[in-house]
Design brief:
This protein is mainly α. It has helices at 2-5, 20-26, 35-55, 66-70, 73-76. The chain has a domain at 19-76. It comes from Gossypium barbadense.
Length: 93
Amino acid sequence: MARELKKPLIGKEYFNHKNLEAIVTYYSYLKNLPKEYIIKESQIRLALIDFLRGLVEFDPAKRWSPFQASKHLFITGEPFTRPYRPPLRPLTW
């Protein structure tokens, strides 16, 4: 309850990095994680970055539709191996 009463600090920087990719990439891992979990987590983070790029694309013609985004590897849980190329948008008349 006390948390809701606090006003956010103006100008406070919550991250040391300025862009989304760096924030996601360099966000610290949990302590004492086995190496294989860190590798898996880093792949998930790469998939997240790729996913977010498609969602926040400034050009509406290039921005993914909800259908296209739903097929992304970050959502489907498939291993991330390369940047996602969405299926073509269904034609609307």
